[in-house]
Design a protein that fits this description.
The complex is a heterodimer of chains A (239) and B (95). Helix content of chain A is 65%, strand content 4%. In chain A, helix 1 runs parallel beside helix 7, helix 2 runs antiparallel to helix 3 and helix 2 runs antiparallel to helix 7. With 239 residues, chain A is mainly α. In chain A, a hairpin with an 8-residue loop joins strand 2 and strand 3. The radius of gyration of chain A is 21 Å and the shape is elongated. Chain B is 72% helix and 2% strand. Chain B contains four helices and one strand. In chain B, helix 1 runs antiparallel to helix 2. Chain B is flat and about 45 Å long. The chains are: A mainly alpha (239), B mainly alpha (95).
Chain lengths: 239, 95
């Protein structure tokens, strides 16, 4: 793995406290993320058990769900994760600005305000695309309680139950909407939190290279949300 | 107890990690829909790719690679507990 030169050494965002060796805000976020790991594991674990117990209920990958659109959404979330970590690196270097011209370079240098705004836009974009996807799926008859009677999907399932699954019992729909719905809720909370920080702390330039705890803590949450989606995208859309 | 000395580390190449994640996502989609691979092997390869991507995010974006082992434990401890939960429920269904 290629790394930057020694001059790119990173300082921690706040002095560590005795005990765990990190400041309390960061420790609190890590403990919360550990509990969230258990929460998503419960959802994913029950999905695995149900899927392997009643495999006929599920459609084949790509038959019902829009994989290309969701693939694009996954790419959007990955980009938001990169912009989040760039925001973290920017404030670590003291770059509180939005954009600044760099002498001798064509591209401008992005600061904390720029990169965090990109993260917020990508996060909001992800939630919007997911909402559009939900509306389209429900319109086609794919609901949490199964394929809606008389809908296009119900007809497809009757004609080809192997490809579309015998989804009338609702196992496929309920697991899909529960897992992606809870994840979407996490993303929404992350976007709202970042917006709050952006207007109350980032724009007034209250963060400094000596104290940018809020950026690191919200960054940890955001990367976790991306990490969970990486797993969910694979097991819900590709398998 | 004295305050621990701050840890410093060399900054990872975030754009390179982004590139790895992008290429692996493309590989996953191609593997799922285009490549003629046996179903069980496809399942294992997709899970490996997903876990690999998750590890990249956890190690480099969340800086877990550069944190003290006590903090890494907080993140690592739920994983075997989660595996036990899933295994137990599957075994209950099987038996």
């Amino acid at each position: 793995m290629q790394t930057s030169t020694v001059t790119d050494a990173m300082r921690p965002p706040f002095p560590a406290e005795p005990g765990a060796g990190v400041y309390s805000n960061k420790l609190g976020m890590w403990v919360f993320l550990a509990s969230d790991v258990m929460f998503f594991t419960a959802l994913i674990g029950s999905y695995i058990v149900l899927r392997f117990g009643m495999a006929s209920q599920w459609a084949q990958p790509g038959a019902v769900l829009n994989v290309p659109l969701t693939g694009l959404n996954t790419f959007l979330l990955i980009c938001s994760s990169v912009s989040m970590v760039k925001a973290y690196a920017a404030i670590a270097d003291g770059k509180k600005y939005f954009l600044r011209k760099v002498p001798g370079k064509r591209l401008q240098d992005g600061g904390l305000k720029f990169w965090l705004l990109i993260t917020i836009i990508c996060g909001a974009g992800f939630v919007s695309v997911q909402l559009v996807e939900y509306i389209k799926l429900v319109g086609e008859g794919f609901t949490p309680s199964g394929y809606r009677e008389g809908s296009l999907l119900a007809e497809h399932a009757l004609a080809d139950p192997v490809k579309y699954g015998a989804g009338v019992a609702g196992m496929y729909g309920s697991t899909f909407f529960t897992m992606t719905g809870f994840h979407g809720f996490h993303v929404t909370c992350g976007v709202i939190s970042m917006l709050y920080l952006y207007f109350t702390k980032v724009l007034p330039e209250k963060y400094s290279p000596q104290d940018y705890r809020g950026i690191e803590v919200i960054g940890l949450y955001w990367h976790f949300v991306d990490l969970v989606w990486i797993i969910l995208f694979t097991i819900v859309y590709l398998i | 107890m004295t305050t621990p000395a701050p840890t410093t580390h060399v900054r990872p190449n975030y754009m390179l990690i982004w590139l790895y994640l992008f290429v692996m996502t493309i590989a996953e989609v191609l593997l799922a829909f285009e490549l003629p691979v046996a179903r069980n092997l496809k399942l294992i390869l997709l899970l490996i790719l997903a876990i690999w991507k998750a590890m990249l995010v956890a190690l480099f974006f969340m800086h877990l690679k550069f944190e003290r082992w006590r903090l890494r434990l907080i993140f690592l401890v739920p994983l075997p507990l989660a595996a036990i939960l899933v295994t137990t429920v599957i075994m209950e269904k099987v038996f």
